[in-house]
Amino acid sequence: MSAIFPVLPGLKWDSKKTPEFSTGVQTAASGKENTCAYWSYPRWQFELSYELLRSGALAELQTLVGFWLQRQGRFDSFLYTDPSDCSVAGQQLGVGDGVTTKFQLVRTLGGFVEPMKNINGAPVVYLAGVVQGSGWSVDSGGIITFIAAPGSGVAITSDFSYYFRCNFLQDTSEFSQFMYQLWELKKLQFKSKK
């Protein structure tokens, strides 16, 4: 099991979340451009800022510094729960055809469908709106596999929570002490992995 980013008080509200794609652009002598999308799905960049990390008995500073040190900066990945984007309910996964047994867990953002691979806990799976307590399994890549293929026209939906697998963007981090046993971290950046 991968390490999970700690939830600590002192997190400022001005957190940032940025989707990123990779596109190749080739410009002809005439000025016409051809583009090529290298990625089908975005990588998400997060930027957090902590205005208060207490050291001493509460050990918030030690918790965050220790977590960062254990990752060795950019080296090791971790799981992050984005408080505003960590679960879906009634998510459409597909429609049965009587043959297909595997369905990827996904989430939809304004019509854009993105696969979710780092599932937090066990999903709840529905066939035609009825909870399925058994007859299926989920693997580490977020793929639901049914023992028997759902019938033709049967809607497959799910409720589930998820993490973003991330790496820190820097190999350094600057914690600043502004009073006795009170610290801040102005910028902590990390990016999701494919």
Fold blueprint:
Elements: E1 16-20, E2 23-27, E3 33-37, E4 43-54, H1 60-71, E5 78-80, E6 87-95, E7 102-104, E8 106-109, E9 112-115, E10 119-127, E11 130-131, E12 136-138, E13 143-146, E14 155-162, E15 164-168, E16 176-179, E17 182-192
Antiparallel strand pairs: 1-4, 2-3, 4-17, 5-15, 6-14, 7-13, 8-9, 10-11, 10-14, 12-13, 15-17, 16-17
- Into which percentage range does the β-strand content fall? over 45%
Report the total helices. 1
Query: What's the total number of strands?
Result: 17
Low-confidence stretches: none
Inertia-based shape? flat
Which sequence of SSEs, written as H and E, runs from N to C? EEEEHEEEEEEEEEEEEE
The total domain count is: 2
Q: What value does the Rg take, in angstroms?
A: 21 Å
Average pLDDT for all residues? 94
Give a short account of the largest sheet. 6 strands, antiparallel
Briefly note the structural class of the backbone. Answer: mainly beta
Walk me through the structure.
- The chain has 194 residues and is mainly β.
- It is built from one helix and 17 strands.
- Strands 1, 4, 5, 15, 16 and 17 form a six-stranded antiparallel sheet that branches. A four-stranded antiparallel sheet has the order 6-14-10-11, with no helix packed on it.
- Strand 10 and strand 11 form a beta hairpin.
- The longest helix is centred in the middle third of the chain and has 12 residues.
- It is flat and about 65 Å long.
Key terms:
194 residues; mainly beta; 2 domains; six-stranded antiparallel sheet; four-stranded antiparallel sheet; 1 helix; 6% helix; flat
